[in-house]
Design goal:
Layout lengths: L17 E3 L5 E7 L5 E2 L4 E4 L5 E4 L8 E5 L3 E2 L6 E12 L13 H9 L2 E4 L5
Parallel strand pairs: 2-5, 8-9
Antiparallel strand pairs: 1-8, 2-8, 3-7, 4-5, 4-6, 6-8
Length: about 120
């Protein structure tokens, strides 16, 4: 069976998380608080109640925003899970995932900027 040259073999969706290449997106390992369900790539993380553990940012988060999740992670275990997050990079604010009742604030943007994460607004097509 022959293939046609104009046939679509696969399609790649456009991800809108990363805005630019400077500063470079650098990853590191983080501990993510258990019991939050599946957190998706692009989740905005902040320090939680337990020292050394991050959680999805919300109105009840105790710490400042300081990382963006780099891959999906299932936190449905009994203990905190190790995940990969961005420690630096340039991201689109409207592509970040936060809890439903939460919006990224100016204080969040400043906290992220202080650790090397820049946020910009992107026009959605």
């Amino acid at each position: 069976m022959s293939k046609r040259l104009d046939e679509t073999l696969v399609s790649v969706g456009f991800e809108n998380l990363i805005n630019g290449t400077y500063p470079p997106a650098e990853v590191f390992s983080v501990k993510v608080k258990q019991g939050q369900g599946v957190l998706k790539r692009g989740s905005l993380l902040a320090a939680g109640e337990t020292e050394g553990e991050l959680e999805l940012i919300s109105t009840s988060t105790t710490g400042k925003a300081n990382a963006v999740l780099a891959e999906d992670v299932d936190t449905g275990s009994e203990e905190a899970v190790v995940a990969v997050a961005y420690r630096t990079g340039h991201f689109n604010t409207n592509a970040l995932i936060v809890k439903d009742e939460y919006s990224v604030t100016a204080a969040d943007k400043e906290a992220l900027r202080s650790v090397g994460i820049l946020l910009s607004d992107a026009v959605e097509a």
